[in-house]
Amino acid sequence: MANVLVLPKNTKGRDFVVGDIHGAYSVLKKALKQARFDPEKDRLISVGDLVDRGQQSPQCLDFLGQPWFYAVRGNHEDVFLKLCKPDGSYDAETIRRNQYNGNGMGWILKQPQETLSAIHAAFSALPMAIEVPSDCGTVGFVHAEVPAGMDWKTFKENIEKDDKPTVVSALWSRDRVEGNDSSGVQGIDRLFSGHTVQNEGARCLGNCYYVDTGAIFRLMKGIGKAPDLFLTVADICADRRDFPGAPENKDYKKVILKRTEKNAQFRKQNPRP
Known about the structure:
The protein is of the alpha/beta class. Helix content is 32%, strand content 14%. The chain has a domain at 13-128 and 197-269: Purple Acid Phosphatase, chain A, domain 2 (4-Layer Sandwich). Strand 3 (43-46), helix 2 and strand 4 (69-71) form a beta-alpha-beta unit. The strands form two sheets. A six-stranded mixed sheet has the order 1-5-6-7-9-8. A four-stranded mixed sheet has the order 4-3-2-10, covered by helices on one side.
């Protein structure tokens, strides 16, 4: 698969984005039910980090095998590909070290080799970025960040060329979000990312939307100890007012399903056949 996947416009239903899952697939299933997700019409696009920390991590294969599910490669998928071989073999001591240093890869030690081999093949096919046209413009998806000052076209070109600094930024960077950089990314209308947990709800800086809201940590710590952490599943054309732009905003505690009034009016005037 190419490093940048361009999907056709969804003319049948809705497109959703989901933040970092990290093995919390029971939570994702509940969120999709709440969103009335229709697998016959709707699509779900993940910003990566499908595995680690959560014991349901192997269920990533179930989702990656669905025609309505798409994902970009996250840093945790990238680490998996470096630690596990294509045949599913690995060095157990290295995996244990990655479990103890916070990466949460201990689930690997419990899986049969054939399962790990299948996950390796699935992760190897994941693109670094996804682009999709929509009613709210062209929408992009990357796990971490587009380098500061780089436009979307250049980013895609660099990703396709495996330019190392750009790839590292796509998988690991937190510069924009930690620096509260609202300059945005030119050449794209919206850009969804994960990687950096937002403790008070999905966040918007310029045209960059950060949707990792710490679902797995809510499960690990317990709901009572992590009331502001949850899984974000959002319509990619949701009203930007549902994404607080300031870290002190604590009002966002819901699954985002709303579309902009303009978009709703467009659909009313232009019903699908």
